[in-house]
Amino acid sequence: QVLTLSLLMYPMLRSLALQLHSLVTGSYISGTHSIAFINCVNEQVAKDIARAIMDKKLAACVNILPKSSALYFWKGELEESTEILLLVKTRTSKIGELSNYVRSIHPFEIPEIISLPIDQGNPLYLKWIEESVPRD
Questions:
Q1: What is the rounded CA–CA span in Å between residue 44 and residue 77?
Q2: Which of 1, 76, 101, 125 is most buried, by CB atoms within 10 Å?
Q3: What pTM did the predictor assign?
Q4: Going residue by residue through the chain (136 aa), what tens digit of pLDDT does each one get?
Q5: Domain with CATH 3.30.70.120 in the chain
Q6: β pairing state of 33-40 and 77-91
């Protein structure tokens, strides 16, 4: 029983140890921040959603990428459209809140909201993300 409890606590202990190490050494913990991808139907919707994300302080930065073509299956049919893509840089801990908020304001029935953890990068930029997005 003690062994099981120890194994269950290991990920939490590892996480705390990594955070302590990061504080002491100033090094970045892989996955602390993420980039979320959000698709939008047009540039105005993209700008509105980007501004709303920034107003809620759910990101340090949102890039609005120009039109791209998309092919996808929707209700059994192959569809083709143009979309605007948002790249949202934020804390990984904010992804759930970001996703919930965007779903509440997005015009699509099922908007694309996916994220990838940031493994490494410019330490000064990563620190800027950290300082720009409130912890909770």
A1: 27
A2: 101
A3: 0.80
A4: 555 555 556 656 655 665 665 666 678 899 999 999 999 999 999 999 999 999 999 999 999 999 999 999 999 999 999 999 999 999 999 999 999 999 999 999 999 999 999 999 999 999 999 999 998 7
A5: 31-132
A6: antiparallel
